Amino acid sequence: MPSPENGGPCDPEAAAPFDWTKFRLGGQFRIEANTNNFGYHPAVITDDQHNQSFVNQRYRLWLTYTPTEHVEGYIQMQVGGINWGNNFDFDHNFNGTFSPIVGDRVGIELRRAWLAYRDEICGKVRAGFLDWHDSFGDTIASSDYDFNAGGIEWTNTLPGWNDTKLKAAILQLTDRAFVGTGEGLPGPRSAYLFAFDADQSPMEKASIGASAYYLNDRGGYSYPTVPNYTLAWDFWFGVRGKIDFEMAPLSGFVIVNTGERHDIGSNFHHTGWAGQAQLGPLPFWIGNFFTQLVYASGDSNPGVGTSSEFRTVAQTARDNFGAQGYWSYLHITSPNGPNDVADLGVGLQDRGFGLVTVQAKYEVPLTKCFKSTTAVAYLRSDRPNNVGNSSYLGTELGELFTLNLGGGLSLDFGAAVLFTGDFYRVSATGPKPDNLYEGFARLQLEF
Questions:
Q1: CA gap 171, 156 in Å, rounded
Q2: Distance in angstroms (rounded) separating the CA atoms of residues 409 and 405
Q3: Cβ–Cβ < 8 Å for 229, 263
Q4: What is the spatial distance between Cα 268 and Cα 306, in angstroms, rounded to a whole number?
Q5: Nearest 5°: phi and psi at 161?
Q6: Per-residue confidence (pLDDT) for residue 3, from 0 to 100
Q7: Distances, alpha carbon 145 to alpha carbons 43, 54, 74, 130, in Å
Q8: Which residue in 357, 336, 295 sits closest to 441, CA to CA?
Q9: Residue 424: which of 382, 399, 390 has the closest Cα?
Q10: pTM of the model
């Protein structure tokens, strides 16, 4: 009979509740300083952009408890981000009510938490607020950028099938059964995501995979800027691959997306696709070179009638820019770790106009603990913006330095400039948008 010490699946006794060797503590503490001349996810950029500077602070702390090799409990809490000089935090799941002063609150967020059970034959099952993300480089849903949804996930590896990795999940994205949304129609007012991923390595230096995702939306999730629709659905199917050539790895994916939104009195239907090809790291001179081409189809009149736009699973900021994640090499147009408190929100959805971008970066180790990363990119939408009547988003150039201070502490600092395109004009005949800049620094401790 298995004993409590060896962690058998049917132990007659529980593990000691205060055996601290069964606990693992982790955290991410950071302070970010930023100066720029643009707002968060602007639809247009004027010829008289205002400057702003701020310092933001955020703490995350997590705890994992594994009483046996089969059982796991996990919790992650977050405080922040809080700008220096403010006495309030952004809204989390629960606002603090300890202060009588309106707006004086600091939110403590339950960011992730789950219970898990693992079996050598049946795999691992997790239930709770999960760190789920897509299998396409976090381009359509990223838990790192707060796509942490409640649900159930199953993962398993099949040794007899060349170590094929399988993952399936059911996630609940909204539950608004008692909240009216304006249309006055009955319904469950909920949105569910059904996801399946499969990956395999047919040879030593190559891998292939495929995914299918289906989102059933009856809760106003997928179209956050459209107030009155009764239901919507979206389906994604994609394939991906990676091969490690002798010189450098080459990877890529292709995703097809189709969906429908039922408005009152009419329907909206769209079918689009997205793809990516990435090369790197490629050793060159004293550093490593990376490059990627990213495309997503769009429409000049998105959200109306029949459209060729590609839409993402996550609707991160609820502003129709779509999923936010750390797939880009850039700083101003898309979020990047050391400066993810200010960006334009450019992604594959991009408000339905689509995206075409060619990006490159060059990483150079200046010393053992000091690294330079230079990035440059050309960006345009797939279809012209129906406001500015242009598809050119701009050309961005950025420089990032990373200093490893040891013990999990690092300092990142740098700057970027965007030579802004006419896509962001306030009108087709409006003035040329200002060029944008950003300076940033991040002091971060991870353990």
A1: 18
A2: 5
A3: yes
A4: 6
A5: -115, 45
A6: 44
A7: 21, 21, 19, 13
A8: 336
A9: 390
A10: 0.91
Q: What is the pLDDT of residue 264?
A: 79
pLDDT score of 170:
98
Q: pLDDT at position 313, please?
A: 97
Of 37, 46, 143, 42, the C-alpha closest to 346 is 42
Q: What local confidence, expressed as pLDDT, does residue 283 receive? A: 95
**Which one-letter DSSP state was computed for residue 446?**
E
Q: Which residues of 343-376 are buried (b: 16+ CB within 10 A; e: fewer)?
A: bbbbbbbbbbbbbbbebbbbbeeeeeeebebbbb
Strands 370-380 and 392-406 turn out to be antiparallel
Q: Which amino acid is at 328?
A: S
User: What is the predicted pLDDT for the residue at 103?
Assistant: 55
Segment holding 17, helix H or strand E: none
Distance CA 320, CA 351 (A): 5
- The whole-number pLDDT of residue 114 equals 98
Three-class DSSP category at 109:
strand
CA dist., res. 350 & res. 395, Å (int):
16
- pLDDT under 70 in the chain at which residues? 1-17, 87-107, 175-188
410, 444 contact by CB (below 8 A): yes
**How does DSSP classify residue 435?**
P
Query: CA 152, CA 155: separation in Å to the nearest integer?
Result: 10
User: What's the confidence (pLDDT) of residue 105?
Assistant: 57
> What's the CATH class of domain 20-446?
mainly beta
- Token pair of 172 as six digits: 């609940």
Amino acid 88: pLDDT: 66
**Phi, psi (rounded to 5 degrees) for 303:** 85, 5
Pairing of strands 266-284, 306-307: parallel
Q: Which of 30, 28, 36 is nearest to 342 (CA)?
A: 36
The answer to whether the beta carbons of residues 283 and 300 sit under 8 Å apart is: no
- Number of other residues whose CB lies within 10 A of the CB of residue 50: 10
Could you give the 3-state DSSP secondary structure of residue 26?
Answer: strand
| DSSP element (H, E) containing 131 | none
Backbone angles phi, psi at 160, to 5 degrees: -75, -10
Q: How many other C-beta atoms are found inside a 10 Å radius of the C-beta of residue 99?
A: 12
Report the alpha-carbon distance of residue 243 to residue 124 in Å, rounded. Answer: 28
Q: How far apart are CA 128 and CA 47, in angstroms?
A: 47
> 439, 394, 441: which is closest to 418 by C-alpha?
394
Q: What is the DSSP letter of 100?
A: S
